[in-house]
Structures are given as C-alpha cells and as structure tokens.
Amino acid sequence: MIELFDNLALGLSVAASLDGLFYCLAGVTLGMLVGVLPGIGTMATLAMLLPITYHLQPNFALIMLAGIYYGASYGGSTASILLNLPGTATSAVTAIDGYPMAKSGKAGVALFMTAIASFVGSLFGVMLLSLFSVPLARLALEFGPQEYFALMLLGLIAAAFIGSGRPVRSLAAVSLGLVLGLVGLDLNSGVARFTFGFPEFYDGLSLVAVAIGLFGMPEIIASAGRRIRTQASARDITLRSMLPSKDEWKRSAMPMARGSGVGAFFGALPGTGGVVATFISYAIEKRVSRNPEAFGKGAIEGVAAPEAANNAAVQSAFIPTLSLGIPGDPVMAIMLGVMMIHGILPGPNVISGSPDLFWGLVVSFIIGNIFLLVLTLPLIGIWVRLLAIPYHYLFPVIVTFICIGIYSVKFQVIDIYVLLAFGFLGVGMKLLRFEVAPMLLGFVLGPMMEEYFRRALVVSGGNLATFLERPISGVIMVIVFAIIGWFGVRALLRLVTAGGSRTNAKTNA
Amino acid sequence: MRGILANRSSDLIGGLIALAIGAYIVLEAFGFRMGTLRNMGPGYFPVLLGAVLALMGLLLIVLGSKEKPFGAGSMGTLRGMILLGSAFLAFALLIERAGLVPTAFITTFLASQSDVRMTLLSGAILALATATGAFVIFNMALGIQIEAFPS
Lengths: 509, 151
Fold this sequence. Notes:
heterodimer, B: mainly alpha
C-alpha cells in the first residue's frame, strides 16, 4: 500500500508538472472538441496529432494522446444527446435515451448526469489500472514467447469475432494488417519483404500514414459535402437546468456502479472494449429495471449506465496495454506505436523500467478527468455552440495539416503516397464492409507476433504443441479455439437451418 | 461507377479481392527463404498469413449471399474524391520543390473545392489563412526543417 502511494507521488511529480498539466489539458480539450463535433472521430484526431508527439518527450506524448482518447469519450455524448448524432461510436447507446430526454426539455440533466457518470466510470477504471497493472506485469515476467503469441492471437481473434459482427471479413483484415506490419527488412535474415524496391520502406510503413489513411481519409471523404444539421441552441442549457433532482440522483446511482463494473471488465479484455461494454450495460439496465418500458423514451438510467461503462472501459483498456504490451483496440495500438517510436519496448518491463511513464499516465488520468468535469459542466454552452461550426471550413485545413504532419516525421514524400494509398484502401474497405480497426491492430502487432512465434518454435524445437502444453498459454489457446469453434458452429447451424436458400444464411460473413 | 458495382454482391467482390491479395502474398513470400518450423525463414509467417487471407476470401465467395447491398451510405461525390486526391498529390509533388507556404496554400485550396459550398474566393481566403498558420506553427514555433518558400 505504501508502495502504491510512493508510486502515485512519483506519478504526481510527472503529471502535475507544468508540462504535464499543459499536455493533459491540451489533450482533454482537443478530445472533448473532436468528441463534440460529429464527423471527426477519435482515431482520426489521434492519428493527426501523432506527428506532433514525435517532437515531445514520451511521457507527455502519451499523456496528451490518452487525454484525447478519454476526452473524446466525454464529448461524444454531447452530440448524441443534443442532436441524436453520436460524436463517437461508443456514445451511440447514449442517444437512445439521451435524445428523448433532450426533446422533453431535460437536455441539461442528461448532460450533467453524463458528465458525472463518465467521471465515476473513469475513476473506477483508473483505480483498477493502478491496482492490477503491477501484479499483472509481475506475472507477465514469467511469460515466454508462447504466452505472448497466445495473448496476441486472443486479442486479434477477439477483435475479429466479438468486436465486429463479421468474423470472416475481420479475419481477412487482420491477416492483411499483419502482413502489412511485416513490410521492411526482416531483422533475422536481412531480407527486404514487400518493399517493392523502395528503400524508404526498409524500416516499415509509417504508422502515422497508415493510421490516418485508414481512419481519417474515409471520414474526410464521407464528410466533405455532407450537411450536418445543427439545431441545438445553447440558450436552453443553464447551469440551473442541469441539476438533477434527488430522485434522478437516486435512480442513477446503481446503474452507474453496474456500468462501471461492466465497462471495466470489457475494457480490459483484449479485442472488446467500449462499444461492446455500452451495449451490454444498457441491456443489463433494461433487464433489471422495474419499468423497462421507460427505456428508449428518456430513462436516465439508460444514460448513466452506458456512459459509466464507456469511460470505465476506456481507462481499463490501458491495463493489458501497459502491463503486457498487448493493445485491445486501435487506439491502444497507436499508444504502443508511440512508445516504440520513442524506443520504449512495450511489455511487462514498462512499469518497472519507466515507472515515471506509467505512474505519470495514471495520475494524469485522474487530473484529466477532473479537468473534463470542469470543462463539461460549467462550460457546456461553449461546446454546444461549437456544434454550429460548418465542417467545410475545417476539413481543408485538416487535410493540409495532416500532410505537413506526416511529412515532418521523416521528410519522406513517399509517406504522403502511402497515406493516399491507405486512404483509398480504407474507403474501399468501408464500401465492401470490411472493418479497418482489426487491420490496424494487426499492423501494429505483426512484427511482434512473428518474432514471438519464431522464438516459441525455436525454444520448443519446432513443436507446435508447445502452445498448448504450457499452462497459461494453453488456457489462452483453449479460449481462442472456443471462440472460433462457437462462431463456426453457429454459422454452420445457420447454414443448415436455412436449407438450400442462401439468402439469409450468412449474415455474419 | 457505383451503378455497375451495386449490381454485384459485396461479398463476392470483397472475397475475390481478398483471395487475390492473399494469393499474391503467398507467391511473393515463397520467394523468400521458407525455413522449417524449428528455424523459420523470412517467408514462413507471411505464407501462413497470406493463406489465411486467401481462405477467408474463398469463404466469402462460397458462403456469401448474392444480394447484399453495399455498405456505402456516404461516400461523398466523385468530384470530391478527385479534388481531395489531387490535394494530397499536389502536396507530395510540391513540398520539396515549392516550399511549405505555397504548397500549403495549393493543398488547402484544392481540398476546399471538393465541397460544393466553397466558392473560389472563400477557398482562397481559407487557403491563405492556412498557409500563414502553417508557417507560424511549423516554421516559427516548432522550427521544423522545411523551406518556407522555393529557394
């Protein structure tokens, strides 16, 4: 326990330094901003700001990027509630009850409760992060390459099967992503793989260009020319109108607690995360509620629970990322990418090797969440007014800054072509209903996975059963096979029951 | 273009593309040394992955429904796509020749014209503002080593 306080004190010295506070505030404000504005997603923003973080110390780079991530999950609900237009995917559930509340004149209460629920959920997630990361990392020191390979496989399989509704497509995307991660010189043999003769590709494709191409470009292309209706008026929302009644407080307390638990659980699991957590916590609230028919018509429980879940998941997603070096979603993959760029090898040694980085991040989460509470509650009017900024003034500027940012990382023109190529790939994948998130996950994990796979088989003398024989990796592999088996059997059953007609046989393809 | 595509199933097209890319990866990776399971060469892992990708492509082709509509929704306009694409191309072609300020101006201007609501004048004003901002942020504040103007 004393150790924990020492660690938190160390973290405080990083996060509460002038630089720490500045980058934390900058991160959460930017995150809040993009969360509020529909049409600019978290991933796109993170990717756009990546180039700047090359010029920062890794501590502050991560503090800022993380701030954008959880800031956006606060802000995402604002557009959800006021416009029925979720700013982020995780806030889609909030619109179900938040928007009806806004329509019946309770927008202020909904926004207030959202902020409180987000705060509660976040703190719960941070608490778990600070309690479980150290023991988990200690356990992970015993891990051999088999365990790491198995864990990464579990993360990818979970992302492909559970995180998305289309396992076949997602598996294809994951495989392609893994291969794209291998582009460059193979460190063991010196062979240049998939470089098409460009020496610029020898140390791999630029993470920034790939990430912005896949996530940012489809958003920009889709949004250019789209008219976003903005009807929310800031006048309706005064601080007084935001305060919930005693009854509303009472009705929200338990949903918040349950939501935090559900969110923290799914957030920490590799491959699932905020979106899954919000849907499940909403379903739970509806089930345990005494009057489930109120849901969808403005039940405050339906706002409080998913918001707590969403933010708890955002924070607990850092547990596997920081203690094992295994990212659960693309945002975490970016975080790991940034660590690697700064020469920090992700894995269980991060916490013991750079305690200032880990604990600085943990404390910055607490500070950032307090910032967000202040940013949201008294200043909500400003954010609401921001919803009225026409997007067509924003995106040309974004395009130019993306280009400069990517170019400034390595001063290679070819990175712009990579961006363009991945932009078209991202648009094409969206058109054909492939998800880009599992692909980016694969891209970041590719080189690590190959290395662990190789090492595991060298150690075991070419025996594939080694993945099953070791207890921890064996258990993980069984889970992997169970997931594949369950979905496989389900798809087969559906095929059989559909008889000859294939029309509806494979809705999951 | 979308008219022709829309008649085909996205499962079929996606499956064919996945199969083709997977096959390409396998063929290309066979060109590297395979090695054995015990001592893997640079070709081993990519061959496995290419095979998985190709297999998923096959599954999509075989199991896919014939009438699934596209997941398009909002793909923007063709004009938007071309102008946006040319904005990025212009940046790539100009940045090492023309310097940061002219490049930023042209890139922003081209990108702005992909939206029908932007007039030539408002696009130019926005582009001028962006170029100035880029100069202040990247050249003056961050001190990044890009020439501001053609030398």
